[in-house]
Amino acid sequence: MKLKKLLSVFIAAGLVFTAAGCGSKSSSNEPADFVAGVSLDKPLKVDKEAGTVTVLTKVNGKYFNEPTRHNSVEQSGTNGAKSVFTAYVKPEDFYNALIEIGAKPGENMTMNNATTTHVEGTPIKVEVTWKGAGRNYDINEVVKDSNGKQINFRFGGNLAMAKEKNTGCLSCLDSCPVGIISNDAYTYGAVETRKEVKFTGIDNVLPEDGTYIATIYSIKK
To answer: H-type helices in 52-170, by residue range?
Structure first.
């Protein structure tokens, strides 16, 4: 009787080990580019009920150490390699997705007034997450403003200019007449021309260079 019980325990333990092994295998086989419901095959997800726009993005470790005014740029744009986060969704699709969740563009920026004008439009909350992150991180937890100011994105709009310039810019870290959303804390030229501020990715929070992440946009309450 004791031998029978002992055999039962070993069999049960073996089944648990097998199940755990299968679970690990399945998890490890999930594509690296699949994060929070987006992937290279489907890089954009609009959830009207939740009020979110999710974009597949990749970490660009170059900007852990070098400053940039570009937060997220679509990979094929002329600024595609100049941002903290490389995106896989074009500005037009991103613009339309924000419209779908009820955001309204400010449309107050032009090339002529850019250096003296703060972007307007619906305030946009930006978060990022990745495999193993455990939660969503606010943009201010992963991108550093050297002056300690909060990044405050607004839906500037600028679709016509985005198409004309073909920079690929989704989000800029100073007010911008080209980027779809941009940071109203600074006017255009604050980073590159006037050197008022430096923006860098926070390397001890973000995952390593080349890691796929999901960037989640919503209307800031």
So the answer is: 91-100, 139-142, 159-165
- How many other β-carbons are positioned within 10 Å of the β-carbon of residue 60? 23
42-90 pLDDT tens trace: 999 999 999 999 999 999 999 999 999 999 999 999 999 999 999 999 9
Question: Of 123, 113, 121, 120, which Cα lies nearest the Cα of 51?
Answer: 123
CA nearest neighbour of 161 among 179, 188, 175 = 179
Burial of 34 (C-beta count, 10 Å sphere; 0-12/13-18/19+): middle
Cβ neighbours of residue 113 closer than 8 Å, sequence gap 6 or more: 177
DSSP 8-class letter at 129: E
Count Cα neighbours of 20 within 13 Å in the Cβ-side half-sphere.
6
User: What is the predicted pLDDT for the residue at 30?
Assistant: 79
User: Which residues 6+ apart lie within 8 Å of 155 measured at CB?
Assistant: 98, 103, 104, 105, 106, 121, 122, 123, 124, 180, 181
State the residue for tokens 């255009």. Answer: 188
> For 93-117, what is each residue's pLDDT tens digit?
999 999 999 999 999 999 999 999 9
pTM comes to: 0.86
Each as own residue / partner, the long-range contacts of residues 108-113 (CB below 8 Å, 24 or more positions apart, any chain) are 108/156, 109/156, 109/158, 109/175, 109/176, 109/177, 109/182, 109/188, 110/177, 111/161, 111/177, 113/177
Res 62: pLDDT:
98
